Amino acid sequence: MVVSFLWKKGGKMAEPTSQLNPHMVKISCFSADTGFFLQCLKRVFLMLTAQLRTLISGFFCIMLLLSAFSAFAAGPSSEDIEDLLGIMESPTKREAFTRNLKNLLETKKAVEAKEGKGKTNGDEQLFIVRLLLDQFDRISENFRREVIALELMMEELPEDYAHAKNFFLEVKNRPHLRVLFLDAAVALLAMFLFGLFLKRPIRSIIGRMKDFTTKIKWGLIYILLKALPFVVLFIVFDIMFRTFPTFPKGHKLVLFLFILMFFYQLLMAFFRMLLSPDQAKARLAHLSDENANYLWIWVRRFALYAFFYFMITRSLVWTQGHALYFSYLRGFLLLPFPLMLTVFVFQVAREFRIKYKISIDSEQELPGEEEEAAGKKPKDRGRLISGLIRCWPVLAMAYVWAIFLSLMVHYEKGFQYLFHATFWTVLTALIVFVLFCILDSAFSRLFRIKEETKRRFPGLERKANRYLTVVKKSAKIIILIAGMGVVGQIWGIPVSGFVASGTGTLIILRAVTIAFTVAVIAGIIEVNNTIAAYLLKEKRRGRKKEVSQKQKTLIPVIQTTTNIAAGFVGGIIVLERLGVNTTPILAGAGIIGLAVGFGSQTLVKDLIGGLFILFEESLRVGDWAMVGTQSGSVESVGLRTVKLRDMNGTLHIISNSTIDSLSNFSKVFSRTVMDIGVAYREDVDEVIALLKELGETLQKDPEHGPSILEPLEIFGLDRFEDSAVIIRARFKTRPLKQWSVKRAFYRLMKRAFDERGIEIPFPHRTVYMGEPKEGKAPPLYVDIQPRPP
C-alpha cells in the first residue's frame, strides 16, 4: 500500500492529499507488522466514527423522508393546481398573492422569533450535554489525527535510524567523535580526582553537626563542597574544547549532560543533609531512621528517573529528529512519573491512616482525667481530619495526573492554566476556612452562656442553644456549596451558566422552598412540643397544679398526632417541590385508611373504650384497680390497652374492648373495713371503747395520721361466728392508704388485747376417743409438766 502525504518544511505533517506536486513524497509501508497494526487500528477507529455519524445522519434522513412522504401523500389536487395557474396568469391576482405571501412571511418570522426565545431556555438546559458532545467530537478528531501521525512516524523510523547509523559510521566524523570523547573523559577524570581530594573534609563536616544552627551552617558548606568537583569539571571541559575543538552540537550535548549531573548531585546533597539516612545526629528533619531512609529511597528513585528522562529527551533534540519522535517519546517517558507518584502517595496515605487509627484507639483507652481531657476535643475536628485523611490521596492523584497529562499531550498553556486554577482554588479554600472560623467565633461569642449559669442550671445550655447547631451547620453547608461552585467555575465547569439557566434557577428556587418548608414544619413541631410540655407541668404560675390523668394521656396523643400530621403534610409539599406526583400517594393513603377501618373493628372498639375511660377518668396511672378478674397497680391507660402490675410484679395488658367490669380502689378516697372477732366471754362495750382509743392513737401517729381522713367509725356488734363475736369498724383514708392504715391498726390492737387479756378467738378442736362395745374406753395418760419460770 502506498500513501501520499504533503510534507512541509521543518518536518511537520500537513493534511493528506490525493494530488501529486513537487512538495509531495511517497512513503512505502515497508514495516509489515507495525504498519499493518497501525493501519488496522486507524481503520477500526475511522470505521466506528463513520458508523456512528452514519447512524445519526440516517436517523435524521429517515425522519425527513417520512415527513416528505406524508407531505407527498397529502399533495395538492388538480383543481388546486388550476387555481394556482389562474392566479399566476392574472396580474391583479398575482400582486395580491405576492402581497399575501409577504405578510405570511413576516408573520412566520415573528412567530419563529418568539419560539426562538422560548427555545433558549431549553437550549440552556441542554448546554452541558452539548458541551460534552462537542468535547467528545474534539477528542475523537484529535485521536484520529494522532493515529495517522503515529503511523507515519513508524513508517519513517527505519529511515531515520539509517541516517543516525550513517552519521556514526562516516569516516569524516570519527576524528571529531574521538576528540569529543577525549574532552569529556579528561574532564570527568579531573572531577573524580578533585572529589577524592575533598572526601576527607566532607567526612569531617558531618562530624561537626550537633545542634540545629551548626547543622544549617555546615550543611551549606557540605553542599558547596559537593558542587566544587563539578566546577572543576566545567572548567576542564571548556579548556579541552578550546584546545581540541569538535562538533559544537556535540559539545552542547555533553555540556548539558554534565549540567544534569551537577543538578542531580546538588539535589542529592541537599536531601542527604535534610534526611541524613546514615547518621541521625546530622539530620535536619525530625524523622525516625525508618522514615528518613524511606524518603531517601523515593528521592533517589525520582532523581534518577528525572536524570534519565532529561538525558534521553535532550539527546533526541540534539539529533534534530522528527518532532513526532520527540512528542511521543516524551509522553512515553513522562508516564512513569505519575505512576511512581501514585504509588508513593498511596503508601504515605496508608501510613497516615494506620497512625491516625492508632492515636484514636489510644485516646479512647485513656483512663480517668486523661480520658475526660481527651474527650473535650471537638468531634467536628476529628471528623474533618478523618475526611481529609481519606480524601487527600484522591485529590493529590487527580492533580498529579492533570499536570502530567497536560505535559504528555502537549496542552497549550497547560501549566499556566493549572497554576492559576490551583492558586484560586487554594485561595477559595482559605476563604471558606476563614468564613467557617468567623462563623464559629460569632456563634460562640453571641450565644455564650456563663460558666456559673451552666453550673446552676445544667440543662439550660442545651435548651437555649437547641437549634443553633442546625442553623450553624446550615450556614456552613451554604458556604461550602458556594465554595464548591466557585472551585468548579475555576476549573472550567460552567457553574455560573448552569445557575443562570432556567434549570439552575428552578433547582435553586425549589431548594429554597424545600428549606423554608422544612423550617416551617420544624417550627410547628417545636411549638406543639412546647405547648404540650407547658400543659403537662406540675407547677403553673407559682401554684401547684395537679395534672389529671386525662391530660397525661390525651396531650401526648394529640402531640404525636399533630407532629405526624405536620411531618406528613411537609413531606407531601417537599415531594411536590421535587417534582413527584403526590396524587397516587394521597389516593393510596386514603385506600389504606379505608382498609384499616374495615379490617380493624376491634382496634376501633379499643380506641372508643379508651376514650370513654379517659374522659370519664375511671382509671388513672397509679390507681389500684380490678379490671375483670385481674387486679393491680395501673401503670398505663392508653387508647387501646390498660396495663396493670400485680403484687407479684406480673404485668397484665388488657384490651379496652374486653373490659366489662372495672373496680377502682383509689378513686378520690379509700376505706378500709375491719371485722374484729373476740371471744364470747369478753365485754363487747369494753372492746368497742378500746378500739376507739386505738383509732384516736393511730390518728395522732405522725406516719399514718395524715393518711386518715376521718376518725374510726365503729358499726357495733355485726354478727356471731362459731367461736367469736364480730365487731365491724372502718377508716376513711387517702387513696391507696387503706392497707397501710389497716396493718398499723391491727398491730396496735394486738398489743392492746394482749395487755388487757382480751382473747382473740382461734379455732378449738375437741378430741373424742370413742367407746368400744366391751365398755368404757381406756384412760388417756397425759404427762403435765409445769412451765419453766
Give a verbal description of the structure.
Strands 9-8-7-6-10 form a five-stranded antiparallel β-sheet, with helices on one face. Strands 2-1-3 form a three-stranded antiparallel β-sheet, covered by helices on one side. A three-stranded antiparallel β-sheet has the order 11-13-12, covered by helices on one side. Helices cover 68% and strands 10% of the residues. The protein folds into eight domains: 1-49 and 126-165, no CATH class; 76-123; 170-329, no CATH class; 335-365 and 378-411; 412-497, no CATH class; 501-599, Helix Hairpins (Orthogonal Bundle); 601-664, SH3 type barrels (Roll); 670-756, 2-Layer Sandwich (Alpha-Beta Plaits). It is an alpha+beta fold and 789 residues long. The radius of gyration is 52 Å and the shape is elongated. Mean pLDDT is 73; it is low at 1-75, 117-122 and 366-378. Strand 7 and strand 8 (641-645) form a beta hairpin.
Number of distinct beta strands = 13
- Morphology call: elongated
- Which range does the strand content fall in? 5-15%
Whole-angstrom Rg: 52 Å
The level of helicity is: 55-70%
**Which runs of at least 5 residues are low in confidence (pLDDT < 50)?**
1-75, 117-122, 366-378
Overall mean pLDDT score? 73
Structural class: alpha+beta
Total helical segments: 24
Please write out the topology:
Elements lengths: L1 E6 L5 E4 L7 E5 L3 H42 L4 H12 L1 H35 L1 H43 L4 H24 L1 H9 L4 H32 L4 H28 L13 H30 L4 H12 L1 H29 L3 H8 L3 H30 L5 H33 L4 H6 L3 H5 L3 H23 L4 H6 L1 H34 L3 E2 L2 E2 L4 H29 L5 H17 L1 H16 L7 E4 L2 E8 L3 E5 L5 E5 L6 E3 L5 E9 L5 H16 L8 E13 L4 E9 L4 H19 L33
Antiparallel strand pairs: 1-2, 1-3, 4-5, 6-7, 6-10, 7-8, 8-9, 11-13, 12-13
Helix pairs in contact: 1-4, 2-3, 5-7, 7-8, 8-9, 9-10, 10-13, 11-13, 14-17, 19-20, 23-24
